[in-house]
Amino acid sequence: QVQLVESGGGLVQAGGSLRLSCAASGRTDSRYAMGWFRQAPGKEREFVAAGLYATTTYAPSVKGRFTISRDNAKNTVDLQMNSLKPEDTAVYYCAADTSGRLYISTHEYEYEYWGQGTQVTVSS
Q: What is the pLDDT of residues 87-98, one digit of tens each?
């Protein structure tokens, strides 16, 4: 079992920045891929970013604005979000893929563990 707890969400104006953090506990392992997904009202949950070893992958909509980073010693994975837009408004979820696959998946069904989510609201 892996427990994930997100923090750092809030309200920010367009163009601003927020940093989300995800603290992992339980059966953590640096070999697991860790990712962030988001779900806006009335929309399906979508992939945002993920990291595995030194590799990172981003959704086209956030590439160049968001940065995912991981501290295996602290069992945390952060998402630095810059140049935020109103369309970034969503509940953001941290997720863990503990399958041991050697590539980063962008599919939510391949992530077994999820946090409770943190709200990010970007005002125009």
A: 999 999 999 999
Helix (H) or strand (E) holding 116: none
Confirm if 50 and 33 have CB atoms less than 8 A apart.
yes
Extract the tokens encoding 24.
């992992």
Q: What are the tokens at 67?
A: 């940065």
- CA torsion sign, 20 to 10 to 5 to 34? negative
Closest to 70 measured CA to CA, from 62, 78, 80: 78
State pLDDT tens for residues 9-50: 999 999 999 999 999 999 888 889 999 999 999 999 999 999
| Cβ pair 47, 35 in contact under 8 A | yes
User: Under DSSP, is residue 89 helix (H, G, I), strand (E, B) or coil?
Assistant: coil
**Structure tokens, 23:** 């603290």
Give the strand pairing for 10-13 and 118-123. Answer: parallel
The per-residue DSSP string of 11-67 comes to EEETT--EEEEEEEEES--TTSEEEEEEE-TTS--EEEEEEETTEEEE-TTTBTTEE
Chain position carrying tokens 């779900």 = 39
